[in-house]
Amino acid sequence: MPSTIDLDTLRRFFRMAPFMVDLGIEPVALEGGRLRTRLELQPRHLQHTGVVHAGVMASMADHSMGAVAQTKAPEGHWVLTAEFKTSLLRGARGVALECEAWVVKPGRQLSFAEAEVYTVAADGQRTLVVKANGTMALTRAEAPAPAA
What we know:
The chain has three helices and six strands. The chain is of the alpha+beta class. It has one domain: Hotdog Thioesterase (Thiol Ester Dehydrase, Chain A), CATH 3.10.129. It has a six-stranded antiparallel beta sheet with strand order 1-2-4-5-6-3. The longest helix has 17 residues. The chain is globular, with a radius of gyration of 15 Å. It starts with 6 loop residues before the first helix and ends in an 8-residue tail after the last strand. The model has no long low-confidence stretch (mean pLDDT 93).
């Protein structure tokens, strides 16, 4: 039976990952099986050419896919990334990144998820910069998942 995880639980889930905290990525919406995360861009997120570092966008997509897969995982299980692929469509410049992630197929041992990362301009216009897909492995939790 899938656990009942809400947005507040996912926020705690993200705060449990020090790297996500360091980057500043936060869940902002969970609706219709889709998770939206956001990152306010800072100079530390950029590479030498002034665009957002690919590692930042890949990390955002990966953790967002894992988090949304966690919403479909059976009680007492953690979701861990087994494999993921990112396609970098264009350089990202803007004031923020937003990621939308969803589960394509939940499973008992493996779940499949997808994500899209958008750059957000100062005027609010969004541009797709990354497409990602991931295979998530379900493992028995050694420690309890954050309470709903």
